[in-house]
Design goal:
Elements (H helix, E strand, L loop, with lengths): L1 H13 L28 E2 L1 H7 L8 H8 L7 E2 H5 L4 H5 L3 H17 L1
Antiparallel strand pairs: 1-2
Helix pairs in contact: 1-6
Protein name: EF-hand domain-containing protein
Keywords: Calcium, Signal
GO molecular function: calcium ion binding
């Protein structure tokens, strides 16, 4: 029963295509930490972040980087990355990442 409710919510929010309505910015930022950490050192530098967000126009990548770098050490670690500033949710730039988690939960519940 819970699985059906979660699936219904996902379907209502994201529709048949599994995508929220487009807001004119076709370039999405990557959801995976490894897509940014090019040198594999466990931290995302500003240069790595700007390179991974090339073409993203919804927010200045440097401003976004500063908001993700909670402790201001000029490096985003996995903890900072996975616990993004809640105010970023209101901006909508991470919606596609949230959608993937929603579908993963729906699929996990139906399969598992």
């Amino acid at each position: 029963m819970l699985a059906n409710i979660i699936f219904a919510v996902c379907f209502v929010v994201y529709g048949v295509a599994g995508k929220p309505p487009s807001k004119g910015n076709d370039v999405q930022i990557p959801c995976n930490f490894d897509a940014y950490d090019m040198n594999g050192d466990g931290d995302i530098s500003l240069e790595e972040f700007v390179g991974a967000t090339a073409g993203f126009t919804k927010m200045d990548p440097k401003t976004l980087y500063e908001r993700l770098d909670k402790n201001g050490d000029q490096a985003i670690d996995i903890e900072e990355f996975t616990h993004a500033d809640p105010s970023l949710k209101g901006v909508g730039i991470l919606d596609h990442c949230l959608r993937r988690r929603c579908w993963a939960i729906c699929i996990d519940i139906h399969v598992g």
